[in-house]
Amino acid sequence: MIIRPNITQYINGQDLGTPRNWQDLVINVDWVNDQNGVNINIADLDFVLEANRFLQERILNGLSGGVGIFEGEPYTIKVGDPNDPVYTFEGYLDFTDEVTVFGREEISVGLKKRKGSDWLNDVADGFSFAYLEDQGVITSGDFVKVPYVINFVPDGTQLILLSLSLYLMTKELIENVENVARAIGILVNAGTPVVGASVGLGAGVVTAWDIGDYVFAGLEVVARIAYTIAITLAIINLIEEIFLQLLPPLRNHLGMTFRRMFERSCQYLGLSFQSSISQLDWVHVPAKDKKGGSSGETGVPDNSGNIYTFGDLIRELKKMFNADFRIENNVFTFERRDQFEIAGAYVIPAYFNDQDRLLDFNGFNTDEIVANYNIAWQFDTQDQNTLDDQAGRVFQAITTPINVINQDYVNIKGLTEVQLPFSIGRTKLDLTAVEKVAKELGKFVDKLTGIFGRGTNFQAKIERRVGSMLLSSDFLTFGRVVAMQGNRLGRDQRETLSATNLWNNYHFINSFAEINGEHNQYFRYQNLRVPMSLEDFDKILTTNICTDADGNEAEIETVQYSPEQGAAIIAYRIKQKYTNNLKIEYV
Question: pLDDT tens digit string along 66-105?
């Protein structure tokens, strides 16, 4: 005999009666096939009488100053004593999800859990990061300046030009210094008096100056010095232009850390955010169609990018970090998926799958094994650096049997591709041949201009290029991900962001071959019908990890729950190895 629980339902705090089809209501939860987290899909509720009249008026009150159809109505279900319920479900009626009105007699409305994962899926794609910036949720203080320089390959022509410039400048200055020295010598000679003897009565010593030669020599010294200064200034301007053309100045592109993008999105939704994934501090530089520092540049992605909305960010980073999320007590938590595998209070009863024959039947998760697991960052056709340097971009893990009798019968197949929609950054670690010559030229110019009171800092500008991001143009086709150390890029950029590290830190738990004590082999149990109270259902909503009657940790995959019948049909799995005949090789 099934004891039906005392169930009271409230529309915005008002008890307006029970939906007509309450007895047929089934709550479905699927933790396996739903890639957006735990979604609660509840059949539409059919309201009549007073509840019907209230809801029809509520939907249309947007015509008379009310909130109208695009804001849901709070809906609460209490089980047990309404003043001290055993279980309370907080949700809302969604008027935008296929509401059906049957004249004035009845209305059918969908019910969703308040701020549950289904709510998030509905709203996360409803706003973009550009919108958050427009609303002032994201400000310029949230952006990270990522320094970059343009590098050219090959460098031969530039190197010849710089070397020739250095040679000509040195030759010209040396010649002019020598000419100035000779002019000064002439001036000194012209200014040296000639001592001689006078003739005639009273002859004596006479000192004479060649005034014409002295004036001429003085003018030549002044002219030589003026020419030297003029040519020096001209050469400096020439060198500045050469540096600008061959060594474009260091600029900054604006980006945001993944963590800040999560935080600002959650702030907009009235949630707080937490995650222990340190790689969320990586900086995402969105696609760019203008030079860094140009007017109007922003650090938020536009609609050409792959993470335009918060929903995009969640989906792509779940894929990147093999992660999942939960929302509890207004806290959005994002972690590697197995971090949520904390056993709850629910215990699966000792019931047989086949009640007639009193038998259990189970299977294996062999359909989930793949022969080839691939993680790859993107190429960026605008940037030769993503084409020339493949370090860290691609990782493959190949699973094969250790022992084989007949290869024709081996049934390990399939491919998992984790295609990351970003390109990977490359750090400038040292100076190129061109920059080394330019550094010496700059050093020479800096000393020279110091003499004439126009100090330059060409040498320092060139040295500051080390530690910046290498680009072959100012533009980016794909979002670029970089790991920062202070205001510079980390030296081990390609190692830090490598696809191999993503496997080692996040994806290795998907391997069927054991790695560091972890494997992905499970026994699976299907279609087990068990008694279930709403209180038990609440336990598995908190976490789908539980225990079976023998004390084994179990992971519930799906639940079809009927509150009216007090029963559920569940499918679950237990981690247990069924083969050691596997090896994994990395490519």
Answer: 999 999 999 998 877 788 776 677 888 999 877 889 998 9
Q: How far apart are CA 252 and CA 245, in angstroms?
A: 18
Contact predicate 306/421, CB 8 Å: yes
C-alpha 225/C-alpha 241 separation (Å) is: 24
Host H or E run for residue 242: helix 211-246
Helices (H), 12-86: 49-60
Q: Tell me: cis bond preceding 154? Omega within 30 of 0 counts.
A: yes
Helices vs. strands in the chain: H and E counts, helices first: 13, 28
Sheet of strand 272-274, all strands in order from the earlier edge strand to the far edge: 272-274, 331-336, 323-328
How many whole angstroms separate alpha carbon 78 and alpha carbon 90?
9
β-bridge pairing 84-94 and 194-197: unpaired
Return the H-helix or E-strand segment holding 226: helix 211-246
SS3 168: helix
Question: Tens digit of pLDDT for each residue in 538-577?
Answer: 788 778 899 988 889 999 998 988 877 888 999 999 999 9
Spatial contact of 9 and 72, defined as CB atoms under 8 Å apart: no
Rounded to 5 degrees, φ, ψ at 568 are -145, 155
- The DSSP line for 352-416 is -SBTTTTB--EEE-GGG--SEEEEEEEP-TT-THHHH--TTTEEEEEEE-SS-S-GGG-----EE
